[in-house]
Amino acid sequence: MSLLLINAGVILGLMILMWLISLPLKDVSIIDLVWGLGFVLVAWTTYGVAIQSGKVCYLLPLLVTIWGVRLSGYLALRNVGHGEDKRYAKMRENAGATFPLVSLFTVFVLQGVVMWTVSLPLQIGIPQNPGVLNAFTYVGSFVWLVGIVFEAVGDWQLARFKSNPDNKGKVLNTGLWRYTRHPNYFGDFCVWWGFWILSISAGGPYWTILSPIVMSIFLMYVSGVTLLEKDLKESKPKYEEYIQRTNAFFPGMPQSE
Question: Where are the transmembrane segments (predicted)?
Answer without folding.
Answer: 6-23, 30-52, 58-77, 98-119, 131-153, 209-228
